[in-house]
Amino acid sequence: MLHKIWLSFFVIGFISALYQWLGLGDSAVFQRMITSTFDMASMSVELAIGLIGVLSLWLGIVALGEASGLVARLGNFMSPLFTRLMPEIPKGHPAIASMSLNLSANVLGLDNAATPLGLKAMKDLQTLNPIKDTASNAQILFLVLNTSSVTLFPITVLLYRAQLGAVDPASVFIPILIATSCSTLVGLLVTAWVQKLKLWDTVVLAYLGLAVALLLAIVGYFSTLGMEQLQSQSSFVSNFLLLSLIMLFLIVAHYKKVNVYDTFIEGAKQGFKVAIDIIPFLLAMLVAIGVFRASGALDMLLDAIRFIVEVFNGDTRFVDVLPTAFMKPLSGSGARAMMVDTMNTFGVDSFQGLLAATIQGSTETTFYVLAVYFGSVGIRHGRHALTCGLSADLAGIIAAISVAYWFYG
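The structure assignment produced for this chain is given below.
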């Protein structure tokens, strides 16, 4: 599936470019496409190099957590849930703790910590994978949960709104949480359906019920805060928990007579290798996306959607925000640029501006995560990973649009 999607970016892009040239007289389209390929190729290396330090840091910290035994304890707590959702994972396997840490970081909006922890989890899952170049069911479910993970603190979106002069930058907090929750739920349901998992298990329902109750309690508390309080409280909670985790790993490891420095160094060494290994996969995906964008295919798709909506006398305001929605699964930086452009064009507190912010916080960058995570362990055949991931993205986008009409009219 992935190789067909990848090829289609080039084919559709080339056909679109031919139309731009022969039909619209735009001969510069080919130059834009070639320039985009070089820009994206450079970006793939820059992204990988930028990950080296972060990967090394967090893989070193995780190594301390493993040596201290705390990671194993976390795995024991989450084991009943993951062994039911991912039957091929033995009870107490290191992958369970790694996945738990990654998903926790995602919930807190800690992207810099979530990616290294996610790569560590994917590497642990790969040790159980019988076919090394093909994604296992467990790896696929983990990737879908990762790309659609509920983000409790969308700090970046709130800051962009504040910088652009929003009256109440935090007004999108609840809509984003609803949209991202829908994304996660649909991602889980679709993957469970494909993999024939039993979600009605008592243990699974208990964990999900606890998660929903905790989520509602947190929403209830943060919804009472103003913008400044929300930003300060969420930033404080995220960073305090993160630093506390590091200190806990260090102190407990030292207490158990672990050489904390040498252990950290050994874990950090893995970060460099992982960052270099993902470059070819990242390069392939970003170049294909760049060609598709530069060819004008995205603009043609939006025009077609707007025409269809107008035929049925529908409200076309949401179409103005679809560039952010379409770009979100493809490129995080591209989606942010689209969001800011929409806010500048229509106003940060306009319907379009509010919807763009909601969409930006509703899902992750599926193609990027797929390329990085699978690329880090050499997986070339993703099976149903992309389909399930995009299903979660679609649910998040539809939920964001629905919530925007509900909250903003």
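Interim note for the steering committee: The radius of gyration is 22 Å. The longest helix spans residues 29-68.
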